[in-house]
Design brief:
Blueprint lengths: L1 H21 L13 E6 L3 E7 L5 E8 L11 E7 L2 E6 L10 E10 L2 E9 L2 H12 L5
Antiparallel strand pairs: 1-2, 2-3, 3-7, 4-5, 6-7
Length: 140
């Protein structure tokens, strides 16, 4: 009987972890930013994109049960903060059209909980704005 209960607990624990990740809420955006979240995702991840009034993405956050990204140390460009987490920002390995300045980072939020954050900017001022927004995100 004890073996059945432990197995059931394990199965329920896995189900709760997967459904909790799918239900992960986008963090509140700071007031007066004129940004809105655009949300998408699957059974084991959630993507939140901060979009401005013109439809431009400034910042994105992907919550997942394991990191989907492993940035290379040689691409590290600066230190910063996301909420109360100290981070290293990296330039992405693959160049993508659209934004002149891109940054990425990965934060371990807890056991089997990760946030991957990316910033898209067309110029240094927009990059500073995106970093300021990332600093204000309450990620727990």
């Amino acid at each position: 009987m004890k073996k059945k209960i432990n197995t059931l607990g394990l199965v329920l624990g896995i189900a709760v972890t997967s459904s909790a990740m799918a239900a992960e809420a986008c963090p509140p955006l700071p007031q007066n930013t004129e940004l809105a979240w655009e949300e998408s995702g699957g059974s084991d991840f959630k993507v939140c994109r901060a979009i401005d009034a013109e439809g431009t993405q400034l910042l994105g956050v992907m919550f997942s049960t394991e990191p989907k990204l492993n940035p290379r140390r040689r691409n590290r460009v600066e230190e910063g903060r996301v909420g109360n987490h100290e981070v290293h920002w990296y330039r992405p390995e693959i160049a993508q059209p659209g934004a002149a300045e891109k940054r990425i980072t990965v934060i371990e939020l807890g056991k089997n909980r990760y946030a991957q954050i990316w910033l898209d900017a067309n110029d240094p001022d927009q990059l500073r704005r995106a970093m300021d927004l990332a600093r204000k995100l309450p990620l727990y």
